[in-house]
Amino acid sequence: MILLVLVLSRVSLYVFNFQLFSGFTTSDIAWAIFVGLRFDLSVLFMLSALFIIGNTIPMPFRSAKVFQAIIKVPTLIALTLAIFLNLSDAIYYRFTLKRMTFDIFSYLSSMETFWEVAPRFLVDFWYAFLMAIVLLVFLVFSFNGVRVKVNRNPWSIKTFILQTVIFIVSMGIVIIGIRGGFQLKPINIVDASLHAPARLSPVVLNTPFTIIKSVGQTGLELKSDFTEVELEKNYQPVQSYPPLDSVPEPIKNVVVLILESFSSEHIGYLSHQKSFTPFLDSLFEHSLVFSGIANGKRSIEGIPAILSALPTLSDESFLNSPYAGNQIEGLAHSLNHYNYQTAFFHGGNNGTMSFDAYASAAGFQEYYGKNEYPNPEDYDGHWGIWDEKYLQYFTEELTEFKEPFLAALFTLSSHHPYQIPAEYTGKFPKGKLQIQQAIAYSDFALKQFFTSAKTKNWYQNTLFVITADHTSEGAEAAYQNSLGQFSIPIAFFAPGDTLMTRRSKKKLVQQTDIYPSILHYLGMQDSIIAFGNSIFEGSSRIFAVNYFNGNLQMMDEEYLLQMEDGNPKSLYEYRKDSLLKNNVLNKRDINDLVTFEKAFQQQYNNRMIQNQIRIKNHE
Q1: Which helix (H) or strand (E) holds 176?
Q2: In the Cβ-directed half-sphere of 21, how many Cα atoms lie within 13 Å?
Q3: d(CA 336, CA 254)
Q4: What is the pLDDT of residues 457-492, one digit of tens each?
Q5: Is pLDDT of 146 > 90?
């Protein structure tokens, strides 16, 4: 009965807003409602755990009326709140296009007029309130129907053992139900996109689930430093680009290689130090290369920045934030409109860091993880499949793809504990850091990949983008500060394309520039929301941004500005002062840079809170 009430209250969001889900078939909606049972069951077991424990605990007192009241009343109160949250969201959804999360309470507390307008909402949307009352009455009658048989005879050892077994089994079911299954990690908000298109995620999810899962997460603050007109003048993330003079013909495949922890420091071509990447050094001689800036320090931050131009500007990564249910777009989403086959590859355990859920939400049609890899004996014993083996598998899979295609691959062998296959012991150089031998192995794996790829028909017509998810620890002083700790390679390589040949740029480029740059290069003029710029666009403001230690860091072509609690803290001329020793904050006029930073933060925060990080007409 509880499950039925949860399902009906969840589905009300679709019933009251069906016009907002146009373009989907009846079977699409039915499937979204069905797979949402997994999230309903999770909430059911969360809110009913006390009731289940109390009624299965192997003790005779469980039949006492007082004890039954103790376990029934809190459960009934929790379920009543769940009903009203689902029905409230059935109305509120039309204003935000996402399920409410825990930050809604701080948002409402900041609205001084909330209690003034609340009665009007009850009048205008009386039917939702009425449905909540009907479901609540039904729930109360269901609870009143629960009767516990009283065993008036003393419990025997046999009875106690039987009840203990029932209790243990019940607890196992509760734990599995709350987790949402036996998968690697408990289900989360972003996992809804694994089961249905991103626009149908609100139909899959229920509001109690999204609120519970976002408890303790730090929400963003709604900003109002600028009026809408002023904001658009100072920074606008909605972008489109005219075609370049030379647009590739035929349309090119795109392969994005995201290398685990490949700091610029390890790459001789960029650091001018001892190199652990002889292959990349040689490839970069024929590429358009930048010593780029990572937008975060974790893989879970780097992947959305690279593939969706979405940085992380809070302590929680996007995938673990209250905004994980937002509708997002990205490279895969854009290229799907041009009949690309799109896939994300990662040789790690399926579900690792919710990469599979992100890939689905970002529009990738297919996900290839460790589960899909055919040779389990190539497992490294820690994270997944060795890079060399997985990159060869990647090559063969791409050969089966229909062109044009987009394939993003995230390597893993250069992750701690930095092991290499036993057969390569002593083959690769060691440096000051343990990771550097693993970097050398992954570079070797890349060489083998390109050697194989050159023999394939698709190779000559492919744009390769090579970058890193984030940096590793630094060995040299220049790579240990807040500049060097974000320094990564960003390279574009297209066989035979002179635009991408023998050029290395000092231009400031960040991970969020990759997505708009690829679209610009391919000649696609779609409007997108990207918190970065095309590297081929000369008129856009050049900048890079990242967030660490609770503060924002903004760079332009000359300065690195560090903010603390919204105020300038430090300013460095980083091109002259790579060790960041000379704070020139009081010696330079930085009003323009501060204004830009505040406008950027306002656009990011407000769009994230209001679920406006995707062009509305992009279905």
Answers
A1: helix 157-179
A2: 26
A3: 12
A4: 999 999 999 999 999 988 998 998 889 999 999 999
A5: no
Asked if the model's pLDDT at residue 430 lies above 80, the reply is yes
Q: What is the pLDDT of residues 243-291, one digit of tens each?
A: 887 767 778 999 999 999 999 999 999 999 999 999 999 999 999 999 9
Distance of CA 319 to the CA centre of its chain: 3
For the record, the structure tokens of 543 come out as: 């900048």
User: Residue ranges of the alpha helices (H) in 346-423?
Assistant: 355-361, 387-399
Q: Which two tokens mark 98?
A: 């996402």
Distance between CA atoms of residues 137 and 130, nearest Å? 11
d(CA 276, CA 279): 9
DSSP state at residue 567: E
- pLDDT on residue 22: 79
Give the Cα separation of 523 and 541 in Å (integer). 21
SS (H, E, C) 341-357: EEEEEECECCCHHHHHH
Strands 528-529 and 238-239: antiparallel
Asked if residue 472 lies in contact with residue 261, where contact means CB atoms within 8 angstroms, the answer is yes
Treating both helix axes as pointing N-terminal to C-terminal, what angle do 37-56 and 65-96 enclose, rounded to 10 degrees?
A: 170
**Residue 619, both tokens:** 């279905």
pTM: 0.80
CA gap 90, 31 in Å, rounded: 19
Q: How many Cβ atoms sit within 10 Å of the Cβ of residue 477?
A: 12
- Region 58-73 average pLDDT: 86
Residue 554 gets the label, from left (phi > 0), alpha (psi -120 to 50) or beta, of beta
Closest of 53, 48, 52, 107 to residue 80, by C-alpha: 48
User: Tokens standing for 468?
Assistant: 């890193």
User: How many other C-beta atoms can be found within 10 angstroms of the C-beta atom of residue 77?
Assistant: 11
Residue owning tokens 């309130």: 129
Contacts of 138 (CB under 8 A, 6+ apart): 1, 5
Please measure the distance between the N-terminal and C-terminal CA atoms of the chain and give it in whole angstroms: 36
Rounded Cα distance between 612 and 616, Å, is 8
| Cβ atoms < 10 Å from Cβ of 569 | 14
Which residue type is seen at 2?
I
Nearest-angstrom CA–CA distance, 500 and 493:
6
DSSP for 75-123, written as a single string: HHHHHHHHHHHHHHHHHHHHHHSS---THHHHHHHT-TTHHHHHHHHHH
Long-range contacts of 431-435, Cβ-Cβ distance < 8 Å, separation of 24 or more: 431/266, 431/274, 431/276, 431/475, 432/475, 433/472, 433/473, 433/475, 435/261, 435/266, 435/472, 435/473
Is 259 in contact with 466 (CB distance < 8 Å)?
yes
